Amino acid sequence: MTAGLGNLWRDSAAEHLSAPQFQGNRNTDLAIIGGGFTGLSAALHAAEQGAEVTLLEAETIGHGGSGRNVGLVNAGLWLPPDDVCKTLGNQAGEHLNSVLATAPDLVFDLIEHHAIACEPVRAGTLHLAHAPGGMEQLQMRLTQTQARGAPVRLLDAQETAARLGTARFHGALHDSRAGTIQPLAYARGLARAATEQGARLHEQSPVTSAERRGGQWLISTRGGKLQARRLLIATNAYHQPVAHIRLPSVPVVQYFQLATTPLGDNLAGDILAGGEGAWDTGLVMTSIRRDRAGRVILGGMGGNARPHADWARRKLTQLFPRLKGAGIEHAWAGRIAMTHDHLPRIQRMGPGAYAIYGYSGRGIGPGTVFGKAVAEALLQDSEAGLPVPAVEAHHERFAALRSLYYETGARLVHLAAARP
To answer: Locate the FAD dependent oxidoreductase domain: which residues (predicted)?
Structure first.
């Protein structure tokens, strides 16, 4: 069982931050609801442009998906680039593909510029073929991404085994643009950088209502009222009800992770020795990475239920038999907002207001890019630079049922796989 084990990222983050609860009344240029990658990137970039920024977080900075995810800084989306174009149209699709191809550049540039202590490693990622059919998927992605000039390479089973430290996979797609970070430390580092630029951040400040009144946005919390010229809602899978604000229900996928104790090189030195992060082509995906202390971190779809924990322990020793009996120090889960087409949305919420949601498992790079772009759109009153066209409304059919479907499917797969 994993009862009592906590979130590794909270226990190991080198960046520390504490922000006061919002109290009183204030006027601001830009109000941001949500203290994850998107909201923090928006706060930082808006403050750099001289705007007065106030960010309200219901819990603590990085409490949601930004402080719980795998920490892979990927280029692009989960959706292959040709499918992005089929869904959005060629012009808008290629624009999004191009913008997100350089998302890791923005992330790692921010880390360097603001000296964010988040264990950055830019050694690429490995998309692993879990079965022979997975190699066909990777070949398709290789063709599509190389056609757009991406530095990707298809590895055979032998080279994959040498990089990963196990021969259980049939090959891999290596993307040298990508890398890994300590995600919560990155979020806190963005928050620190934003405050250094003059943004005002508040934790434990859930928004109770937000409405347009007299040409301004009036935002209420338990501690006071904020009047803002512009508004960004960046709560994604952790959105809480806010009076006068209607966001669509988006299906939620739970993702579980388990981390070993720090392991020495004699036991785990050949596991992702190059520093890559990895995930596979399985329908119920598995991710593998290490942190700077030498922990092996394994994840998969599913919440904090017993079947997922049992599966993760068994999967770890299936991949790396020498880790049988290794101590498990942390276990945690988070939520992913998954749109039906795996594309994020920028939704207009009224004059001078947007909501961003639906990264579908690719939050670090896209969240950083989208936050910056929407901040610029709000300050410049122009949508020309948005990564995707803004929409007036969005609807996800059977959102609650699909969330249940994802969790049930993952639980059944993991129950079967966890049997001795």
So the answer is: 29-376
